[in-house]
Amino acid sequence: MARRSAPEVNAGSMADIAFLLLIFFLVTTTIETDSGISRKLPPPQEDEVEPPILKEKNIFVVELNKNNDLLVEEAPMELGDLREAAVKFLDNGGGKGEDACNHCQGAKDPSSSDNPTKAVISLRNNRETNYATYIAVQNELVAAYTQLRNREAQRQYGKSFEQMEKDLKDVNYTGNKESLKEDIKKIQFLFPEKLSEAEPKK
Amino acid sequence: MSKFNKKKSGELPAISTASLPDIVFMLLFFFMVATVMRQNTLMIENKLPVADQIEKLDKKDLVMYIYAGKPSSRYRASAGNQPRIQLNDKFADVSEIKAFILAERASKREELIPFLTTALKVDGDTNMGLVGDIKKELREVQALKINYTTRTGSALDN
Description:
Strand order of the largest sheet of chain A: 4-3-2-5-6
Number of helices of chain B: 4
Oligomer: heterodimer
Low-confidence stretches of chain B: none
Structural class of chain A: alpha/beta
Strand content of chain A: 5-15%
Mean pLDDT of chain B: 84
Helix content of chain B: 25-40%
C-alpha cells in the first residue's frame, strides 16, 4: 500500500477566528487613567488645639468663588498668572536674621513672605466651585513648588528635582539611593509644600 | 514574437492574504496585553479634568476608588440629576464612605494598610461641595493619602 501523506488542515478561517477575538478585546478595552495629583489631607482636628499664629505677610490667600473666579490676595487674577505669582511669593525671602533665606532669588520685599519654610498658601473654595477649576488651581500651585524645587536641585546637585524623584523609583539607577533620598529630603525641607485648605464657605 | 506577449493575457494577480492572520494576531496580542479589565461598572458620567503635575499610581491593589459625578443617562430616572458618589458598583451616600474605607482596609494585609491610597475619580463638572464632603469623611477615618485622578494635559484647558 502506498504511504498517504497527512491531509493539510485548512487554515483559511484562522483570520476570521482571530478577528473575532480581536473585536472582543477591542470592545472590552478601556484604557484606564491611573495618574493624578497626589495630596495629603490634614489629620482630623481636635477642637481644643489653638491654631498657630502666622504673620499676615506669610500667608498667600487664593480664593475661588462660586462663579469660578480666582481671587489672589483679594485681587482678581487669571489662572495663567497664578503659577508665577505663587513662585514670586514663595521665593521672596524677605526675612532677616534667623529667618533669612540664602537660597531665595526673589525680590526680598519686606511686605511679602520671610522664607519658603514659613510661607503658607491658603486655598479657599466655595461649595459651588467647579471641580475642574479647583484641580487647575491645585495643579498650578503644585507646579510652583516643583519649579522652585527643580531650580534648587539644579543648583545643588546639577539635576532637576523631578529627575531625582524619577531616579529614586528607577530600578536601573546606578547611584547611591540612600544619599539620593537624603538629597530629596533636603530639597523638600528647603521648599516644603505648605498648602492649607480652609473649610469651604457655604 | 509570442515571447513578449505572454504577460498581457493575465488579469490582475490576486493579493495574497496569507499574512493577514499574522497581522490580526499581532493586533490581538497588543489588545490582550494592554487590556485592563475594569473593576467597577461606571454608573456616572466621568470626564476627568486635566492636569500636568501628576504622579502615577503604581500599586493598583493598594488603591481604593471613589467615583463621583452626575448619574449617566441610563440611571437618571432613578438616581436624579445631581452629582452622586459611586462606591463599588452602586450609588452611595456620603455617610457610607467610612464603612467603605473600613471594609477595604479589612480586606488588605495589615502591613499594607499605611500605604493605601484613595483615588478620587471625580467628574470635572462636579461642585466642590460634594468633594469637600468626601474629603471630610476621609479625614475622619484617617485615610489621608489621596490622589485626584486626572488626565494628562495643560491645566489651563479646564
